[in-house]
Amino acid sequence: MADEKVETVRSSSSGTLGRARNATRDAALILDSSSRPQPDAFTNSEAFLAGVSSCGVTLIEMHAQETGVPLQRMTATIEGVRVPPEPRFSRITMRFELIGVSQAQADELVETYRKR
After folding, report:
1. With a threshold of 0.70, does the pTM exceed it?
2. Model pLDDT for residues 73-96, shown as the tens digit of each residue
3. Where does 25-88 show beta strands of DSSP type E?
């Protein structure tokens, strides 16, 4: 379909148990298993959380620019809680800090992210 956008990532063994090489286009990323005793790289869980929070940052920044909202900078902090041995997050919370906008503008920008 013409409206489809396909994103492809290739993951492969790295030669180190619990570590994977990931590549897309000309970019590469090493990810460690969340169950490794002492991970050296981002873990799979951390990468998932980073994907969610970075989506919020980029979407809000771009929407602010498109709509003329004077956002200067922002931070999104995301926290995922798991109860072992369950591999899923039981709770995820995200906090946004927006600089250069009123509380009403910040609320509207975050609501735009929530709706998408």
Report:
1. yes
2. 999 999 999 998 888 899 999 999
3. 27-32, 73-82
